[in-house]
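Q: I'm writing up a methods section and want to include an example of the input and output format. Could you take the sequence below and give the corresponding predicted structure tokens, formatted cleanly so I can copy it straight into the document?
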Amino acid sequence: MSFIYRLLFFTFVLCSASFCQKSYEDFCVLGDNYFIEMDYENARISYMKGLELNADNYDLNWKLARLLVNFGEIPGNERKGYFEEAKKYAEKSIIINPNSNEGYTFTAAAIGNMAYYAGNKDKLNASNRMIELLNESIKINPQDHIALSILGSIERLLAGINWLEHSIGQVVYSVDIKKGSYEKSVEYFQKAISIDSKLIRHRYELALTYLDMKDKEKAKHEFEVVLKCPIQLRADNHRIELTKEKLKQIDK
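A: Here is the clean output for your methods example:
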């Protein structure tokens, strides 16, 4: 092989290698594809590789936070530190880009899941902080159905606190407890469903709200719709199991 041919061959190899190298955007897209396929392990690897190339990329940070929240919501993963890690990446994404909504939404989601295992005072403080974050998210993007859905859950939980519990909470914990509304909860879920009608969480949480309102017929309808929705998140499998149990209880 002549010198010219060797030089051309070497140049071709170098160019081919450069095309094979992935950018942080490539890893972000790869992670998204794995997330859709519910392959959370490889999605995490992909997002982390992207962050190795660009630690301050907004999308990689909030998407990793979203992934970790969903990882933590799988039964058995609750106490494995996923929510704490999610909160770290979500808060970083807010710092990187405070004018986008996703960071606020998934910071709230992480805080809410962490508060589930906390004491009453921490739960109350967490709910107030979540409301602030979620309202900011919706202010930026009124179509953020995840934020709307989480607000619906908070409204339902707060609506279940009676006046005596409000008074005791404010005296004992020195925390301002907001009054919730079942009707407002329903509005949030219906708005979320109008944006994404197939996400199981929205329908399932709306059905729980109707149960708390003692409206079994509407609850049953929503639970039945849940069973027709596609499974898009691993935690949906658990929601399906709970839905079947709720329907059996309603039909008794």
